[in-house]
Amino acid sequence: MNPTAPSSNSPAAPDDTPAASAAAADELAASGAPAPSDASAGDSTADTAQGQLPLDRSWWQNVTGRSEAGRPGAAMPQTEATRVLPAAPAAMAATAATVADRPFAPVDPRAPQPRPAGGLAMLEAREVSAWFGDHKVLDRVSLTMEAGKVTALIGPSGCGKSTFLRILNRMHELVPSASLAGEVLIDGDDIYGDHKKLTDARRSIGMVFQKPNPFPAMSIYDNAVAGLKLTGTHVSRDEKDDIVERCLTRAGLWKEVKDRLRQPGGGLSGGQQQRLCIARSLAVQPRILLMDEPCSALDPTSTRVIEETMSELQKEVTIVIVTHNMQQAQRVSQQCAFFLASQSTPGAIVEHGDTDAMFNDPQDVRTRDYVNGVFG
Ligand SMILES: Nc1ncnc2c1ncn2[C@@H]1O[C@H](COP(=O)(O)OP(=O)(O)OP(=O)(O)O)[C@@H](O)[C@H]1O
C-alpha cells in the first residue's frame, strides 16, 4: 500500500450510516466485546453482526479503553473520514523532510525473512505510518513478528504501541480521522491489499484488550462461541460443544468452569473473564493473537495464569503483546520492540530483537535507559 491522499472512494462515515454500524460490528467481532445489552444470550450478537449496534460512549470506552474521540461515529474535529484505506493525509508531505532527519534508526523492511514453519503465521509490518487527522503518531515502523513466538511491544505512554497493534488487525481504520500508510503481511500476504476484506483479517487475527470484556449476562458457553456468530461461521451443536471445550482448555479455564457453563460470564473473576475473552478469540481459530496490556487490570495470580496460558498458546498462535511491565516482557516474550516518540517526533522503533539481548545488552542508550527504568 502506497501512501496516498485519501482516495475518492473513501466515503465519510457519519454516525448512523450502515458503514459506521458495520464497522462497529467489526469492532465487536474483533474484540468479542460486550454489546450494550446482552441480556438475551446469543441474540444480541446476531443483531450486532447485522450492523444494528448502537455504539454508546460508555460502552466504547469500556471496551476499548479509548477516549470518546476515537469512538466510531463520535464527533471528530476532522470533517474528512478516512476509514477506507490506503490513505494518508497531506500532512505526510509536510513531515517528509523531518522524517528523513529523525533520530531513530530505520529498520530495513526488505531484509530477507525466514518463512514460518507449519501452520504458524509470520506477521510483518513494513514502513507503517499512522495519523489521527494531521497528527502523525507512527513513522515508518517495520517489524517482523516471527511465527510461533511472542513479540512484546514496549515503550513509554503515547509512543504509538496500541495504534500499531490496532493497525495489525485493521482496527485503526475504524477511527473516523485515522489514516495510515505501509503494509501488514501475514505470510507475505498484505491484509490491506486490494480486494482484502476486513472480516478476513479479523478471522486470522484475534485481539484481547486491557479490560476483560465478556458479554456479562451471556453464559460462559455462549461467550466462548460468540465470535463464531459475529464472523458468520456456522457450526453444529456438537461442533460447538467441542469448540467450547477446546477453546476454554487452551485458554486455561476449562477445569474451573466446566461445571457451570450455563452461568453468566459476568460472574467470573477478572482473571477468569480475561481467559474467557482469550477463549472467545481462539474460537474463530486465529493464526495471530494480539494482546493490548491484557494483565494490567489483573492481580499477580491471574497475571501468572494468563502468562502461562500465553506460553502454551504460542505453540499454535503467533502472539504480539503490548505491555508496560518490563518483567512481564522478559517473562513472556522472545522478541521485543522498543517504541519511542517525542512531542515533535512520531512514534518509531528505536531497537528490536531478542528479548534477552534487548534487556541485557541493548545497543541504543535510550533502550538501556528505558528498560532500566531511567524514564518511562
Ligand atoms: N482515537 C484517537 N484520536 C486521536 N489521537 C489518538 C487516538 N488514539 C491515540 N491517539 C494518539 O496517538 C498517539 C499514540 O497513542 P497510543 O495509544 O497508540 O500510544 P501507546 O504507546 O499505546 O500509549 P499507552 O501506553 O499509554 O496506551 C498518542 O499521541 C495519542 O494521543
Automatic annotation (TrEMBL):
Q: Which SUPFAM superfamilies match?
A: P-loop containing nucleoside triphosphate hydrolases
> Domain named ABC transporter: which ranges?
123-371
Q: Where is the composition biased (Low complexity)?
A: 1-49
Name the CDD domains for this protein.
ABC_PstB_phosphate_transporter (cd03260)
Keywords (alphabetical) are: ATP-binding, Nucleotide-binding, Translocase, Transport
Q: Which GO terms describe its molecular function?
A: ATP binding; ATP hydrolysis activity; phosphate transmembrane transporter activity
Q: Name one Pfam family in it.
A: ABC_tran
GO annotation terms (biological process): phosphate ion transmembrane transport
Cellular component per GO?
A: membrane
**Is this entry keyworded Transmembrane?**
no
Segments of this protein annotated with the region Disordered: 1-59
Is Transport given among the entry's keywords?
yes
| Entries under InterPro entries matching the protein | AAA+_ATPase, ABC_transporter-like_ATP-bd, ABC_transporter-like_CS, P-loop_NTPase, PstB-like
- Stated name of the protein: Phosphate ABC transporter ATP-binding protein
